[in-house]
Write a structure and sequence with these properties.
- This protein is an alpha+beta fold and 399 residues long.
- It folds into three domains: 67 residues; 72 residues; 183 residues, Umud Fragment, subunit A (Ribbon), CATH 2.10.109.10.
- Strands 1, 9, 10, 13, 18, 19, 20 and 21 form an eight-stranded antiparallel beta sheet that branches. Strands 6-5-4-7 form a four-stranded antiparallel beta sheet, with no helix packed on it.
- The longest helix has 27 residues.
- The termini are far apart.
């Protein structure tokens, strides 16, 4: 008796399970079924639910009837997999569009807070002792090593870019020999300090370090909808409708920019002695930027590559002795690598609608900047005033 009761229990449970699966299938395929198929499927469900036959017989009858209904379903496993991919893609797209968006830093305008593709000295970190493959995966570094094999001048017409999906190299001729180094021509010129007016000597070392990929970070977009943008935030914005001397900024150097938000709507700004002074809206006196937000302190430290802010004579705003009031609904953006940054000094205030989000987390490579963006302290090495060359201070090579 107990055995029969158990059999009946499991049989009824199986019938309920099959009925639930068929109802789920009926709901999922509703938009793919024609009217006749829907009627057949509904009749099948009624039969299974009300059949006086044993549970095993009812289930077998239902499955046989289902095979006779041509639902038009082909490769169900593949279809379920594709449905899953679509759902995952939609969720990932929603997260990217509404919450987090990944970016790669392309240039050095925010160094040393965030780095674009840059040169590093050999011997400045534990990564130097790792195999080349691990350096590339973990630290995004490629070896840049060159010792000249013969005397001769630089051939300025010999530069050639070798570009593929993964890497960019530049080759050039000194004397009669062609050499190759990682990076685009402007980056190679920066770290080798090549000079067409020099006569190079055999055995001279032009490079002995690494070229590292730019920082990759997540930008959070939520806070822009919850609170006003804050002075000092490292902010990504698009360059739509921004102009530099009659040319569209997006045509000059890309659609997305990342800078530090230095001026809020209504702020009056000026630069003096390499420091930014701000008169907030409604106030009568100027104050140093680091008095208003401590994140500016390291910019004025003159350590690790931080150099403060410069009056750029070629710019349209904040030239020496000038003041600038940020228009309502706009924000003034400055690069931390001020001497080598194309920023609001050239294109003015950025409209609120152009703001994309705030830098949140550097997720690759695993450098001293890995983690919360803009949290690393400057290296305790003086920046200096005479050591910069083609877009970077030499102390920045130690990052």
């Amino acid at each position: 008796m107990i055995t029969d009761a158990l059999k009946n229990f499991f049989s009824r449970r199986k019938r309920r399970k099959v009925l639930a699966e068929l109802r789920t299938l009926r709901h999922a395929e509703d938009d793919l079924l024609n009217a006749e198929q829907r009627r057949s499927f509904d009749a099948l469900l009624d039969t299974l639910a009300t059949s006086p036959a044993s549970d095993r017989e009812a289930v077998a009858t239902a499955r046989g009837a289902l095979r006779k209904i041509d639902l038009g379903i082909r490769h169900p496993a593949m279809r379920e997999f594709l449905d899953l991919i679509l759902v995952v893609g939609a969720v990932a797209g929603g997260i990217r569009g509404l919450f987090l968006q990944p970016f790669r830093i392309p240039t050095g305008s925010m160094q040393p807070t965030l780095y674009g593709i840059h040169y590093q000295y050999r011997g400045e970190g534990v990564a130097d002792r790792l195999p080349a493959s691990l350096q590339a995966i973990g630290f995004g570094r490629r070896r840049a090593e060159l010792k000249l094999a013969e005397d001769g001048p630089l051939d300025v017409d010999s530069f050639r870019v070798d570009d593929n999906f993964f890497t960019t190299d530049t080759s050039f001729v000194v004397g009669t020999r062609r050499y190759r180094l990682p990076g685009e021509p402007n980056k190679v010129l920066e770290y080798t300090e090549l000079d067409p007016e020099r006569l190079y000597r055999r055995g001279e070392t032009l490079a002995d370090g690494f070229v590292a990929m730019g920082d990759h970070l997540f930008v959070e977009r939520v806070s822009l909808y919850l609170r006003p943008p804050r002075r000092g935030d490292v902010t990504v914005f698009n360059t739509e409708e921004l102009m530099v001397q009659g040319r569209r900024l997006s045509d000059l150097s890309g659609y997305y920019y990342i800078k530090r938000l230095a001026g809020l709507p209504g702020d009056t700004l000026k630069i003096a002695d390499n420091r930014l002074y701000i008169r907030p809206k409604g106030e009568t006196a100027f104050r140093r930027a680091d008095e208003l937000d401590p994140r500016f302190e390291k910019l004025f430290s003159q350590l690790g590559g931080y150099q403060g802010y410069w009056n750029e004579p070629r710019a349209d705003f904040l030239r020496e002795g000038e003041e600038y009031t940020v228009p309502e609904g706009h924000y003034f953006m400055l690069g931390d690598n001020s001497r080598f940054s194309l920023d609001s000094r050239f294109f003015g205030g950025v409209p609120r609608r152009n703001l994309v989000g705030r830098a949140l987390w550097v997720f690759w490579p695993f450098s001293r900047r890995w983690g919360i963006a803009d949290s690393a302290e400057p290296l305790g090495i003086p920046t200096g005033r005479d050591g910069f060359n083609r877009g970077s201070y030499r102390v920045m090579y130690r990052q």
